[in-house]
Amino acid sequence: MKRIIVFLSFIGITAFSQTTVNPDISFLGDLLVKGDSNLFSLTTSGVEIAAQGYVNPFARADLFLHIHDGEGTLDVEEAFLTVERGLPLNLGLRAGKFRPDFGKINREHAHTYHYILASRPVQALLGEEMWSSAGAELSTLAPLPWYSKLSFSVMQNGMGGHGHEEHSHDKNEENRELYEDKKWSEKKEEDHGNTGVVAFRFSNFFELNEISHIETGLNHYRAINESEGTVSGVDMKFKWRPDKYRSFTVQGEVMQNSGKEEHEEEKHHKEHLSEEHEESTTIAYGWLNMQINKVWNAGLIVDYASELDEAPYKSFGFFFGFSPVEESSVFRLRLHQEYHGNEDPVFSVVGQLIWSLGPHKPHRF
Amino acid sequence: MKNTTLTAVLLFSTLSAKLSVVTSTTDLADITSAVGGDRIQVVSIARGTQDPHYVEVLPSYMIKVKRADIYLKVGMELDRWVQQIIDGSRNRKLVVVDCSQDIPRLEVPIGKIDASRGDIHRYGNPHYWLDPENGKIIAATITEALSQADPAGMQFYEENLRAFSARIDERLVMWDEQFSGLRGGKLIFYHNTWPYFASRFGLDVVQFIEPKPGIMPTPRHLEKLISIIMEQQITLVAMEPYFSDKVPKYLAQKTGIKIVKMAQSVGARTAATSYLEMIDYNLEVLKEALK
């Protein structure tokens, strides 16, 4: 039934737009090659379908659907209406199902990641496919000489959801272990997710000169039922782009999750009292990318969690990208070393071939 | 003290009374300055040294557009990035003008348009400003937009339009005389930026370094270019300064062909300080290189 509704929604939006002009429709697909000492797999993230266009002179609609490989399910990643011109007080409005304005990575689609996959701590906190929920978001541009934006979102579901069913169907035990954190995050949603949450972001963008800029953000998330925890974060992005194809980008984000661990601990160890585990968890990531020329890019990524599955976690990785023809097809490679508690370090290699049809591209300079 | 405050208020009122115009490119900005004179203030989003096809949308551009009265875009899908800036500006009163609206278009594709043909523009080749005759049409479109936004300045704008068009006409006569030797001159361009310019000044564009618009040359295409250069005795490769000169240098090494960098926009080269100077500069470098 859910699939039928989703399909009809897609057709409905498309058909509505076709009464005037077709929306931009794009398809993205990939092949993922993963390997470490225990596991080698050839998989795909499935297919992402994007339809974007104007519904009237003031409002735009964006629809992102994801068909997961081997599941036959069609997930609505995002389906929302945006009004940016036409409202007073420099207000902007988003409504529907969308990724709220919280931090940097939460708004970035996975196909734009130079490093192929979001880190385990980020997935554990925000969800396998980041935090997306039904809700509404109001934002305004502050009356300042530079770009300064305040966003306030009211969402139905909290962070940590949006995982699909892959894990429960996966027969491979090792593969299940690889995704253990995601199951953990899904359980978080069961505990906290459906009570309503609010999120706030204050971001500023400064042009340092003609070829470089910096963006900073402060973020806060709170469940409407206050006992269910908060997440606070800061983020930063710097980019230097001296010419058409060369650039150097640094992005980092720190998020502190308070008051959620107690519930998770309760879930796993019901004999413990929650008060004994009211610790906050800090996660962070940082990456830098050098676009060397039109074809090649390379960079490195680091991830950190003060606690992930009851043990500290950190990882380091190098990544490379190769786009021989256009940005509509990109080869990526990531070499990654993870350190999790007292376990032996795990070295993994992930390769990706990603392609797109239409204007929604996998890669940006 | 009162006088100082009054002067400051008057100065502020004068400045804020000016029409604020944002353009996609420096060429449109320069033509707007010629028409609008001191009744307007104009800024361009793209710099002359940038490829106007690919401009990264920055929030700071939205702030520029937020305060603007008019946005002038190139259109014909060249500056596809514009809409995101306009939406992000949240400027409810902004008037958006497509400067390609009255341009006679070249190379409008027929048949199925898809990525197998490279980065092709379905409404035709969008580099129309490189024909100075089109410069007059752009100026007329801008004059109309400024006059509608500022009716009190209509006469002023129309006088400036006449003066600007007259300057172009004078130069066209001069260019015809001074650069008649360029007619029939064979050359290879890097990207298909120059059909309007080539058509106006009679250049014979034999090939492009890009096998298809936006697509990097393959070894096979380079072999073909080398063969064409040798067979047809082509002596010149002309390119926009934002492209890498690695491939042109390779061709120069193999065939001895000369390389020149042209100004596809105002500010792309140091000497291209205005719209007319840009055309002048391009003709001069070609004349020198094709000697």
Q: Describe it for me?
A:
Chain A has 365 residues and is of the alpha+beta class. Chain A is built from 6 helices and 17 strands. In chain A, strand 7 and strand 8 (147-155) form a beta hairpin. Chain B has 291 residues and is an alpha/beta fold. In chain B, helix 4 (82-89) links the parallel strand 3 and strand 4 (95-98). Helix content of chain B is 45%, strand content 12%. In chain B, strands 2-1-3-4 form a 4-stranded parallel β-sheet, with helices on one face. Chain B has a 4-stranded parallel β-sheet with strand order 6-5-7-8, with helices on both faces. In chain B, helix 2 crosses helix 6 and helix 8 (219-232) crosses helix 9. The chains are: A alpha+beta (365), B alpha/beta (291). Chain A binds chain B through residues 60, 82, 84-87, 90-92, 141, 145-147, 149, 205-207, 210, 213, 215, 241, 243-245, 293-295, 324-326, 328, 357, 364-365, and chain B through 47, 49-51, 54, 56, 58-60, 62-63, 66, 86-92, 94, 115, 119, 214-216, 242-244.
Main attributes?
heterodimer, A: 365 residues, alpha+beta, 16-stranded antiparallel beta barrel, B: 291 residues, alpha/beta, four-stranded parallel beta sheet, 10 helices, 8 strands, 12% strand
Please outline what is shown here.
Chain A has helices at 2-18, 120-126, 166-169, 173-178, 180-192, 261-268, and strands spanning 24-36, 40-43, 47-54, 59-67, 74-83, 91-98, 133-141, 147-155, 197-209, 212-223, 230-240, 247-258, 281-291, 296-308, 311-322, 329-340, 346-357. Chain A is an alpha+beta fold. In chain A, strand 13 and strand 14 (296-308) form a beta hairpin.
